[in-house]
């Protein structure tokens, strides 16, 4: 029997397949079949989307856990620990259980090459199947149609927002991306979309599949009323719901889609359960506020739509002092598109060279600086750093009690900050 630690397994998996990403279900499907094709739970909801997948999955888990349901949640990527990717009954899976199922997957693959993500997806399915769950919540990693999660025929598919990201893989426009994401739908089963203005390709693809498309603003919706809101759909209305604990006006759209998905699964609990679930939901890195005198917000937003959501949140809650930003992105991201929504809301920019965080995809600060200089006209508002620790110490030292700092641009930056403020957490 293998004596590999979890860190050793993950290192080995990262080198097993010649490509970091290879979309398609043939290879993983063969291994899944060799493992017995276990269904992760009697009821399954798959969640795809450019942004909002993580928030929607976290809300689904929180609400169903409060309702007494046995849940499993698979998501990616992780921030500090690989174990974050698989949650069973509300708790992260253990190293021992991951190593155990990795051993089973390796034995079953009989030479079939799997990517790092495919190994993790199979591990999630095996661990969920043995946990006697009521509901499995599966977050799609990339796209939908050819993502490893699409091995499973979901009872309800939920698509959140449709925006421009991973265009090299999914296509150059929202129409192409909408078609790819619609691939998680199944004939005669519900497909919920919480994007208020999806591309026509989503509906066209849903009809071609034979899925039952349910859209925000058409089949279900929500109304705001001060600090509370109401959800309605299919002849039912639930009033006086609290806003989700996750920050940002956009979270109401996500929450409305979550309630629609639960309604179509026939798992929508009473309003008091919904209220508790929405209040208790937690998700690190999504407009997460760090404790302290000054307001420090962390967000993994790494595409233009996510940046718009960050900007929407900042406008909704202005501060007395300045708003500072620590930004770092990756080489394959739309740097100008990410910066544009925020440029009028930030008083001082701090730019991080991410090559020290992600050696194969990191990027120097030049692209961000060029854009900001062209649109701000002055270099006095820009300070660049090559090292996160130095940047963090100097930026936080500049914060006054009425100031705000927003840190955003990529998962690696947020993970790095969380590791600095919570040094006891080790990343795998």
Gyration radius (Cα, Å) is: 21 Å
Strand order of the largest sheet: 4-3-2-5-1-6-7-8
Percentage of residues in DSSP E strands: 15-25%
CATH topology of the largest domain: UDP-N-acetylmuramoyl-L-alanine:D-glutamate ligase
Structural classification: alpha/beta
* CATH H-tier superfamily of the largest domain: Mur-like, catalytic domain
Q: Can you name the CATH architecture of the largest domain?
A: 3-Layer(aba) Sandwich
Largest sheet: 8 strands, mixed
Number of separate strands: 17
How many domain units?
A: 2
* Helix count, DSSP H or I runs of 4 or more residues: 15
User: Which stretches are poorly predicted, pLDDT < 50 over at least 5 residues?
Assistant: none
Name the shape in a single word: globular
> Which CATH top level class of the largest domain fits?
Alpha Beta
Protein architecture, described:
There is one protein chain. The chain has 428 residues and is an alpha/beta fold. The chain has two domains: 6-280, UDP-N-acetylmuramoyl-L-alanine:D-glutamate ligase, CATH 3.40.1190; 288-421, Mur ligase, C-terminal domain (Protein-Tyrosine Phosphatase, Chain A, Alpha-Beta Complex), CATH 3.90.190. It has helices at residues 6-16, 26-34, 53-66, 95-109, 116-129, 167-170, 174-182, 200-209, 251-264, 271-280, 304-316, 335-339, 366-376, 388-397, 411-421; strands at 43-48, 71-74, 86-88, 91-92, 135-139, 156-159, 190-193, 212-215, 220-225, 228-233, 236-242, 288-290, 295-299, 323-327, 348-352, 382-385, 404-408. The chain has an eight-stranded mixed β-sheet with strand order 4-3-2-5-1-6-7-8, sandwiched between helices. Strand 12 (288-290) and strand 13 (295-299) form a beta hairpin. The two termini are 22 Å apart.
């Amino acid at each position: 029997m293998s004596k590999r630690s979890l860190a050793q397994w993950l290192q080995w998996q990262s080198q097993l397949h010649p490509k970091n990403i290879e979309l398609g279900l043939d290879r993983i499907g063969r291994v899944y079949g060799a493992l017995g094709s276990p269904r992760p739970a009697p009821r399954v909801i798959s969640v795809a989307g450019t942004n909002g997948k993580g928030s929607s999955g976290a809300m689904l888990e929180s609400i169903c856990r409060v309702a007494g349901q046995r849940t499993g949640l698979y998501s990616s990527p992780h921030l500090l620990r690989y174990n974050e990717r698989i949650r069973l009954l509300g708790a992260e899976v253990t190293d021992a259980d991951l190593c155990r199922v990795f051993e089973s997957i390796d034995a079953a693959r009989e030479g079939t090459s799997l990517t790092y993500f495919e190994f993790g997806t199979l591990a999630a399915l095996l661990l969920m199947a043995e946990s006697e769950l009521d509901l499995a919540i599966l977050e799609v990693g990339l796209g939908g149609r050819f993502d490893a999660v699409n091995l499973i025929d979901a009872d309800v598919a939920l698509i959140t927002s449709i925006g421009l990201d991973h265009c090299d893989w999914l296509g150059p426009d929202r129409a192409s991306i909408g078609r790819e994401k619609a691939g998680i739908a199944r004939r005669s089963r519900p497909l919920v979309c919480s994007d208020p203005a999806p591309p026509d390709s989503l509906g066209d693809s849903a009809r071609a599949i034979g899925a039952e498309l349910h859209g925000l603003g058409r089949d279900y919706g929500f109304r705001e009323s001060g600090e509370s809101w109401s959800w309605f759909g299919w002849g039912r209305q639930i009033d006086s719901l609290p806003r989700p604990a996750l920050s940002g006006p956009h979270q109401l759209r996500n929450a409305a889609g979550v309630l629609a998905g639960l309604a179509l699964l026939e798992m929508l609990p009473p309003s008091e359960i919904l209220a508790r679930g929405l209040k208790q939901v937690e998700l690190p890195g999504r407009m997460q506020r760090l404790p302290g005198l000054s307001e420090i917000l962390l967000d993994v937003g790494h595409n233009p739509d996510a940046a718009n959501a960050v900007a929407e949140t900042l406008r909704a809650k202005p501060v007395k002092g300045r708003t500072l930003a620590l930004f770092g992105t990756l080489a394959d991201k739309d740097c100008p598109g990410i910066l544009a929504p925020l440029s009028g809301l930030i008083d001082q920019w701090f730019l991080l060279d991410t090559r020290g965080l992600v050696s194969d995809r990191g990027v120097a600060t030049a692209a961000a600086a060029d854009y900001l200089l062209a649109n701000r006209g002055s270099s006095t508002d820009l300070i660049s750093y090559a090292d996160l620790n130095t940047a963090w110490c100097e930026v936080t030292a500049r914060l006054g009690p009425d100031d705000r700092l927003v840190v955003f641009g990529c998962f690696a930056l947020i993970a790095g900050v969380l590791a600095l403020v919570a040094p006891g957490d080790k990343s795998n």
